[in-house]
C-alpha cells in the first residue's frame, strides 16, 4: 500500500536537487524514493549530519568542552594573554632560554 509524503522546502533547493536527479534520468519523486530505500539498506543516513556551524555533533560537543575549559582557566588566571603577536612571540622565545 502506498502513502503520500508532503515535504516543505524552499524552491531554490527543490529546483537544484530536481536538476541533479534529472541529470541521472530521475524525477524528484523517484529520487526521494531511491534515497529512502538507500537509507533502509544502509540502516543509517549516508552522510554526516552537521550543526549550523559545519561540525558533526561529536566535534561540536568536543569543541564546546574545550571552550568551557579554556574559559575556566582564563577566569582562574591560569592563562597568559597578549596584546599582539609580537608580544606572544617574545614570551614564547624567552621561555626557551
Task: Outline the structure in words.
- The chain has 97 residues and is mainly α.
- 61% of the residues lie in helices and 0% in strands.
- It has four helices and no strands.
- The chain has helices at residues 11-23, 28-42, 57-75, 85-96.
- The termini are far apart.
Choose one word for the global shape. Answer: elongated
Termini separation: 78 Å
Helix amount: 55-70%
Gyration radius, rounded:
25 Å
What structural category characterises the helix and strand content?
mainly alpha
Residue-averaged pLDDT: 92
Which stretches of 5+ consecutive residues score pLDDT under 50?
none
The total of beta strands comes to 0
Strand content: under 5%
Q: What is the succession of H and E elements?
A: HHHH
Separate helix tally: 4
Report the major sheet.
Answer: none
The number of distinct structural domains comes to 2
Give short descriptive properties of this protein:
elongated, 4 helices, 2 domains
In short:
The chain is an all-alpha fold and 97 residues long. It has helices at residues 11-23, 28-42, 57-75, 85-96.
Amino acid at each position: 500500500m502506498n502513502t503520500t509524503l508532503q515535504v516543505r522546502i524552499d524552491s531554490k533547493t527543490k529546483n537544484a536537487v530536481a536538476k541533479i536527479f534529472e541529470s541521472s534520468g530521475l524525477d524528484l519523486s523517484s529520487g526521494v524514493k531511491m534515497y529512502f530505500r538507500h537509507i533502509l539498506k544502509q540502516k543509517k543516513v549516508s552522510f554526516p549530519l552537521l550543526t549550523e556551524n559545519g561540525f558533526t555533533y561529536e566535534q561540536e560537543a568536543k569543541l564546546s568542552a574545550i571552550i568551557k575549559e579554556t574559559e575556566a582557566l582564563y577566569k582562574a588566571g591560569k592563562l597568559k594573554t597578549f596584546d599582539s603577536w609580537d608580544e606572544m612571540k617574545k614570551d614564547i622565545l624567552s621561555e626557551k632560554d
